[in-house]
Design a protein that fits this description.
Layout lengths: L1 H6 L33 E4 L4 E3 L10 E6 L5 E7 L6 E8 L14 E6 L2 E8 L2 E8 L6 E4 L14 E6 L2 E9 L9 E8 L4 E8 L16 E5 L2 E5 L4 E5 L8 E5 L8 H6 L5 E6 L2 E8 L7 E9 L4 E10 L7 E5 L6 E9 L2 E8 L4 E8 L1 H4 L8 E4 L25 E3 L6 E3 L4
Length: 425
């Protein structure tokens, strides 16, 4: 009964961000969490297939096994490292299960929230979804039932929400459904409490005042309190209260940013923008690379979820022309630290960790091309708090001084305080 009450809260009329009674601090540890380890890691999105004979070569922090098909077993394992080192999720299986093909046919990590990660395993014509739950003693692995009709979930439009012993997977597609002249978003929701998928056609916000979200496309998702937030980096955030019996969508505009450059438009906004929930704060980062300006700025904005006001808190200047820093993400361990990927040369890329308040280069980590080949329209890494729930601490990354030879010069911006009322419907 208690679980059902958590999964089916009463219908809320106010913005989900404001219902703190149903919310939780983003980094809150539940019973059984290990407090001595670093709490937040960056997972590489590509999940390698590993044969059972090779599994011992990877330092596993936690693993779990589940039946997969007729007489087969699959093990999901995590090998954790402190950012900017990337952590790995691995799928361990026999040859009969593994997919033989190029890297894009490998499993991928779609989303993460608290002690769970969501892995999609290609299994044409659809896919198999695995939910791995970390635990200090015994981790668990669930295989989700197939959707009808069966098809793979979009990487940029799928989110995961942990809710105590239960969890929710939600995927959004923007499509026109002929319900009169109504514009709707199609949201597919799986709840572990019912072990079933449901498809919801939810009206897009802004219809009453003519502010229709036109051609809205999900670029990323993140979990905040008991909601999954779908982000279009060129338009707005759509907040979905997925635990409600009647989920709705509420629009929150993004802060004012520099106009996108032709290169940004060609490569996609997801390369140069990010919305992150860190330490119970919602922040937006934008890579400002205007033509004719030598230095590139990474600006940081914070959202006041009560007044819906974006405030520019500051940022950093990065001197790395002609290359552009990509995929900024705010650290879950320290909201003053931002990680971003910088190409130094073809096949030579580094992930920087920088204090955006002071401009201090904390560390950087070099990746071989194999590690960054997923850096395509999908963000190459996913933040996760799984490390809070395992006994074995993440491997520590090597710290470098800010005078490390070859490092791009970085300076902090003077703190600005322009504010903008974020329109919400």
């Amino acid at each position: 009964m208690a679980a059902a009450a958590v999964m089916n809260p009463p219908r809320r009329r106010e913005h989900p961000f404001l219902n703190m009674e149903l919310g939780r601090p983003f980094v809150k540890r539940r019973a059984g969490a290990t407090a001595e380890v670093a709490g937040w890691v960056l997972f590489r999105r590509t999940v390698p297939w590993v044969g059972r004979e090779q599994a011992g070569r990877y330092p596993s922090s936690a693993h779990a096994t589940v039946a997969f098909g007729a007489g087969n077993e699959v093990t999901a394992s995590v090998a954790l490292g402190c950012p900017p080192m990337l952590s790995l999720a691995l799928v361990v299986a026999g040859q009969a299960v593994r997919t033989a093909g190029p890297w894009w046919a490998w499993p991928s990590l779609l989303a993460a929230d608290e002690d769970r990660i969501l892995i999609q395993v290609p299994n044409p014509p659809a896919s198999v979804l695995l939910v791995f739950k970390a635990h200090p003693q015994v981790a668990t692995l669930d295989v989700l039932p197939q959707r009808v009709p069966p098809r793979a979930l979009p990487a940029r439009g799928t989110g995961l929400l942990s809710a105590g012993d239960d969890y929710v997977v939600a995927s959004m597609d923007y499509r026109y459904v002929p319900v009169g002249e109504l514009e709707v978003a199609t949201v597919t929701i799986y709840r572990s409490s019912s072990q079933a998928w449901t498809v919801r056609h939810i009206p897009l916000p802004g219809l009453a005042n003519g502010n229709v979200v036109n051609r809205w496309t999900p670029d990323a998702t993140f979990s905040y309190h008991h909601c999954i937030c779908f982000v279009d980096y060129a338009r707005c955030i759509l907040v979905c209260d997925v635990l409600s019996d009647e989920p709705g969508l509420i629009q929150v505009d993004l802060p004012p940013c520099a106009p996108a450059t032709p290169r940004q438009i060609a490569q996609g906004h997801w390369n140069f923008r990010a919305v992150t929930a860190s330490q119970n704060l919602v922040k937006f980062m934008d890579v400002d690379a205007r033509p004719g300006v030598d230095d590139i700025c990474i600006n940081v904005w914070a959202l006041d979820v009560h007044g819906y006001i974006w405030t520019q808190q500051g940022g950093i200047r990065v001197s790395c022309r002609p290359q552009l820093p990509q995929f900024p993400v705010l650290s879950g361990n320290d909201a003053d630290v931002v990680h971003f990927l910088v190409p130094h040369a073809p096949g030579d890329r580094y992930l920087y960790s920088v204090n955006w308040m002071t401009g201090e280069l904390i560390s950087k980590f070099r990746y071989i091309e194999e590690d960054v080949r997923v850096a395509r329209p999908d963000t190459p890494y996913v933040g996760s708090y799984v490390a809070q729930y395992v006994k074995k601490p993440p491997v520590k990354a090597v710290a470098f001084p800010d005078t490390l030879p070859g490092a791009c010069p970085i300076t902090s911006l003077e703190n600005h305080a322009p504010k903008r009322k974020a329109k919400k419907d």
